[in-house]
Amino acid sequence: MDTSTSVTNRSSLHISQFILMGLPGIHEWQHWLSLPLALLYLLALAANLLIFITIQHEPALHEPMYYFLGILALVDIGMATTITPKIMAIFWFDAKAISLPECFAQMYVIHCFLGMESGIFLCMAVDRYIAICHPLRYPSIVTDAFMAKVTGFMVLRNGLLTIPVPVLAAQRLYCSKNEIDHCLCSNLGVITLACDDITVNKFYQLFLAWIIVGSDMALVFSSYALILHTVLRLNSAEAMSKALSTCSSHLILISFFYTIIIVLSVTHLVGEKIPLIPVLLNVLHNIIPPALNPMVYALRMESSDWVSRGCLATTMLIQLGSVEVISKSNFNILIGQILDGHRFKRSNFNSSASVQVHYFSTELKETNHAPMSPKALPHTGWQKFHCPTPPSHAQLSSY
């Protein structure tokens, strides 16, 4: 008799919706934050749409680097749109109620877009690593098929691995409190309201963070560490400055993204002491990157194009720098002019002719030494690259 009464009372308390309370501790004046958040959202929409449309309609931007940038723009739009309209509804119209299916759907989409953004950062880091550290192999590695496979893998990885997050959350029993001190349906914020055991949910959240974000973060920073190691070996101050300038802007955005992810992963540890900080960081993490990413990458488009235009120059600096094949001053002038985009763009490489890199070391004017064969050089990484025709003496003298 007591057991049946307990089951009846528990069923009667089963909730059908959550109440998103907003920012904890500042409920009375949180509506004042709606204006800057709305402006950031509009900026993110406009900037990312502009970048995506520009990349689609400009043939010169149909390169791997801009292809990934276009995907990042779509991910940023999706991420910001997933949460911002609901936050504005809470702040402006006090529309705090959200049904369980809507909450779980928002939870899934947020995790998907976070994983996709992390994956795109990894793809861009790998693209730059190949372009700078293995430039002569870049056109043969980073092909259209390669980009399609990488993009498909990222979509499947994030789409499938995040399914258990809302599924496990939906299996919990919510029978008493339904107020969430948050602006969105975060996994940890929702499952803490459950009446039954949530150990599996927490374990899978930790597992997902290590598998997706942890592995991506390790590979991203490893790629940039190798890039910086390569760049610091350059003999040209101009080339080093351009490379460091480009990498620094990317590293700032990536560091911001992963730093907030780490903070969010320990939200449940600091939430009891200062609940506002993790919630506010969670909201800003979903709005600020979509607004900042297009501006930073758009401003760096010209300098980022150095990667695809200066592949040969980078290799020449590394492989010829330790061998005084030409005078240092003339060599630096040559590399600077190549980096400024005189020729050797990725689109110019095809299979119509094959020329060895050491061609330049034997034919440049004002060399300090006699022509050297590849076997005489201390490096063994000499490979063939493809260009329409070998440069003539007149073209070389134009440098």
From TrEMBL:
Gene Ontology terms, MF aspect:
G protein-coupled receptor activity; olfactory receptor activity
Q: Which GO terms describe its biological process?
A: cellular response to lipid
What the entry lists under PROSITE patterns is as follows: G_PROTEIN_RECEP_F1_2
What's a Pfam family in this record? Answer: 7tm_4
- What UniProt keywords apply to this chain's record, in alphabetical order? G-protein coupled receptor, Membrane, Olfaction, Receptor, Sensory transduction, Transducer, Transmembrane, Transmembrane helix
* UniProt domain G-protein coupled receptors family 1 profile: residue ranges: 47-297
- Tell me which domain of life the UniProt entry assigns to the organism this sequence originates from: Eukaryota
TM ranges are 32-55, 67-93, 105-126, 207-231, 251-270
Which ranges of the sequence are coiled-coil?
Answer: none
Organism of origin is Cnephaeus nilssonii (Northern bat)
One GO cellular component term, please give it. Answer: plasma membrane
Membrane topology for this entry?
Answer: Multi-pass membrane protein
Q: Tell where it localizes.
A: Membrane
Q: What is this protein called?
A: G-protein coupled receptors family 1 profile domain-containing protein
Q: Which PANTHER family match?
A: OLFACTORY RECEPTOR 56B1-RELATED, OLFACTORY RECEPTOR 56B4
